[in-house]
Design brief:
679 residues; disordered C terminus; alpha/beta; DNA-binding; disordered N terminus; 8-stranded mixed sheet; globular; 18 strands
DNA sequence: TAATGGGGGTTTTTT
DNA sequence: ACCCCCATTA
């Protein structure tokens, strides 16, 4: 067992061994933030603090896994496994399950993800008949994002819309009506969305009795990535520490990338206003990246109008580092080829695939690369974008789990009923109506659904009635039945529908089997459903078929999902204006600056090798042969470029006549001609 | 009357 | 690639 503390520098050690007042650690990328946080937990345990009285809050699930994993690796004893922690949302969920009664929540409350929340918004919109009269009302996803931003920032809707959705700002009253109806509907249905988890946690923390219990549950609260907390999360933290000063916050305002969730680095900078007697320790020695990579990061930072020059000092030369590469490619296809070439080249040099990452601004940016990687049988895992739990079959089973505990969950009924052949939105609605009582309310007990079921059957096509009845029967809870047995019954009843609806049914049924096993140590199926919505397992389906090497895979990730991680080699793709920075973010100067910080985050993930790829031509898929020219990312300023070695990819097609091209290209000469004007 | 398939417009980032 | 709307069909 290695003693982490011996590896710490002086200031890291000071932070780790800090006493019993409020502490702020301002830590640039690669300065050993996680190591210090881990060492601090170890120190607290050594001081005799009980592990379950330490709360370690992180922002993303991956960070939670990373830090808690390192903490739990410190000691082999089961004792240490009890350190409390996770994302804000998952910790909130646990608190709400425990204190549901005081907060007026039903025991079997359901947790809906963003997609379900958007569906519910649409459902409410239809009920208010706001659907056809106002065709300029935003789409469900836009509305849900707007709702979330408003709630998380605590800013009035009118002001949020004036700033972020000015094109429909005149609808703010209508949308306000829609939102309050949405809130009411969630309560009626016994559902919480992600924002509700935080809202109710804050309510709990501010409650006189429960709040004291919650605040008293922890001796130490540690918060990672504090630059990305929003008003709501700050309120929770302040409430949790009302009677106790012992909080440690860690962050870097140069890496604030979540303003779309209402986060603001102000909360980190103004932390002394929220936590009394706050001590600040700054970590600025970078142990991660080579000097050449730090030069890129620092010149990026220097280009910012406000200049976020956290000068990063290299502790000692990083061995095996290469000059950062700026690679100009003719188009996306060539970019995919060059990235694949470079990944394999580094792999040959001994850099395992897991030590390499391809980073991009938006999830769909990796689409073409994924095709190329699959073609070359290079295994990869993608983070961000399409997720396992967003796969329809998983959501189907989770919806059935939610119904077993809470038959009022109209969103779940909509999903499950539409699995039946011949049932679409309208018929699903009519079936749900048969469940309602005189007050048009859905029943609290599943037995009432079963009682109404004979009437519902009449609405179904004759040939699906039997399997539909079996499904209803399977969802109904039985007394003294183990949750896993119940889950297995539901899965079995759902299987015929999965088989009928999906081509790759066997693989999907295996996923569902894993979900059933996850019910082995729970008391409630709705709890498991909520955990899965919050924890986002990664699909094995993301692997490209027969792997080149077992248990090694290239990491594909959005920059947001890669926050806090490091890799020997980082490949940043689509460094073209409009993609990175995203044109969606260019409406305001703040938007552009956040994109700049995002690029900075991407660059500072790299230890030894950094390659940035700029495709120059984008094909429009609608019209064959139609294309447009892209400018290199504005972040690649002349000053930044001096930190790179530049090269132009030679078209492989021109050299070898490679045959897997999708559309005929113009001669490479034209591309080269265009390129040459750029430098 | 309601499901389903085709065509056209739009697409950020995460819990 | 996805979502939304509309026309067609059962």
């Amino acid at each position: 067992m290695s003693d982490t503390r011996s590896d710490l520098n002086e200031r890291q050690r000071e932070a780790a061994r800090f006493g019993d007042t409020a502490l702020r650690i301002v830590a640039g990328p690669g300065t050993g933030k996680t190591t210090t946080l881990t060492a601090r937990v170890e120190f607290l345990l050594d001081q005799g603090v009980a592990p379950e009285r330490i709360l370690l809050l992180t922002f993303t699930r991956r960070a939670a896994r990373d830090i808690l994993g390192r903490v739990r690796a410190l000691r082999s004893s089961a004792h240490v496994q009890r350190v409390a922690g996770g994302t804000f949302h998952s910790v909130a969920h646990h608190a709400l399950r425990r204190h549901h009664a005081t907060l007026g929540l039903d025991e079997g409350f359901g947790v809906v993800d963003q997609g379900d929340a958007a569906d519910l918004v649409d459902l409410v919109r239809a009920d208010l008949s706001l659907v056809s009269g106002n065709r300029r009302l935003p789409k469900k996803n836009t509305l849900t994002a707007l709702y979330s931003r408003t709630v998380n920032s605590g800013v009035p809707l009118r002001d949020v819309m004036a700033e972020h959705t000015p094109w429909c700002a005149d609808h703010h009253e209508q949308i306000g009506t829609l939102f309050s109806a949405y809130v009411a509907r969630k309560r009626t249905l016994g559902l919480l969305d992600f924002d509700d988890l935080l809202l109710f946690w804050r309510a709990a923390v501010e409650d006189l009795t429960v709040g004291a219990t919650l605040a008293g549950s922890y001796d130490h609260v540690l918060v990672d990535e504090f630059q990305d907390v929003n008003r709501l999360q700050l309120d929770i933290l302040v409430g949790l520490r009302r009677y106790d000063p012992r909080i440690t916050i860690v962050g870097d305002d140069a890496q604030a990338i979540y303003s779309f969730r209402g986060a603001s680095p102000r909360f980190l900078l103004d932390a002394p206003n929220y936590f009394e007697n706050l001590t600040t320790i700054t970590l600025d020695v970078n142990y991660r990246s080579s000097g050449a990579i730090l030069a890129v990061a620092n010149s990026l930072a220097a280009d910012a109008p406000e200049g976020f020059c956290a000068v990063l000092r290299e502790d000692k030369p990083v061995l095996g580092a290469n000059a950062p590469q700026l690679v100009h490619c003719a188009d996306e296809r060539e970019q995919s080829e060059r990235v694949s070439d470079r990944v394999l080249e580094l792999y040959e040099q001994g850099v395992a695939l897991q030590r390499q990452a391809v980073l991009f601004r938006a999830a769909h940016h990796s689409a073409d690369l994924e095709i190329e990687l699959s073609r070359r049988r290079i295994p990869f895992v993608k983070y961000g974008g399409l997720r396992y739990l967003e796969a329809a079959h998983v959501k189907d089973l989770l919806a059935a789990f939610r119904l077993a505990d809470n038959p009022r969950d109209e969103v779940a009924w909509f999903r499950v009923l539409q699995l039946l052949p011949g049932v679409g939105p309208a018929k699903a609605r009519r079936i749900i109506d048969t469940f309602r009582d005189d007050a048009r309310t859905l029943p609290l007990q599943f037995a009432d659904v079963q009682q109404a079921w004979p009437d519902s059957l009449a609405l179904l096509p004759v040939d699906v009635r039997q399997i539909a009845s079996q499904l209803i029967d399977a969802m109904a809870p039985r007394v003294h039945e183990a949750p896993m047995t119940h889950a297995q019954r539901i899965r079995d009843a759902l299987a015929p529908f999965i088989l009928a609806s999906y081509e790759d049914a066997p693989a999907r049924l295996e996923d569902l089997g894993a979900l059933v096993l996850a019910c082995s140590d729970t008391t409630r199926l709705s709890d498991v459903a909520a955990e899965h919505v919050l924890e986002m397992p990664i699909s094995t389906g993301d692997f490209a078929g027969p792997p080149l090497v077992d248990e090694d895979w290239l990491v594909l990730s959005t920059v947001h999902s890669a926050k806090g991680l490091e890799f020997d080699a980082v490949h940043i793709i689509h460094a073209a204006d409009g993609n990175f920075p995203a044109d969606m973010a260019l409406g305001s100067p703040e938007g552009l600056e956040e994109e700049r910080r995002l690029f900075y985050v991407a660059v500072t993930r790299a230890r030894r090798n950094l390659s940035v790829y700029v495709p120059l031509r984008y094909h429009h898929h609608r019209v064959r042969d139609d294309h447009s020219w892209a400018q290199p990312s504005r972040f690649l300023s002349p000053a930044v470029r001096t930190a790179f070695e530049e090269s132009t990819a030679r078209s492989r097609k021109a050299v070898s006549g490679d045959l897997h091209d999708l559309a005929p290209l113009e001669g490479p000469e034209l591309v080269e001609g265009r390129l040459s004007k750029l430098w």
